[in-house]
Amino acid sequence: MVARTKITVAYLGDRFSGWQRQERVRTVQGDLEASLSRLVGGRRVVVVGAGRTDAGVHAAAQVAHLDLPDGIPSTALPRLINARLGDDVRVRSATRAFDGFHAISSAL
Known about the structure:
Layout lengths: L1 E10 L16 H12 L8 E2 L9 E11 L7 H6 L6 E8 L12
């Protein structure tokens, strides 16, 4: 079973080639997914952002969602994932999302 989880992410874009996962370059989505995969024992975790940013763009509070396996409380996620991320990206908050939440279509 999984729980849809809403996260708010902040990052300094200087060392990223944008948000979206790409081959052979560092991206925010790629770093988040790799760190989350390590957290859940190697399973793939897809992070969906409310929007995409270009290379070099910073964000203070970008919303995204992921489906978090049971057993990891969303309230603990920022601490757990931030320990596995570089110092230029941080999960600022995580909460269980309402049914049907999608970072793109539910963003206000």
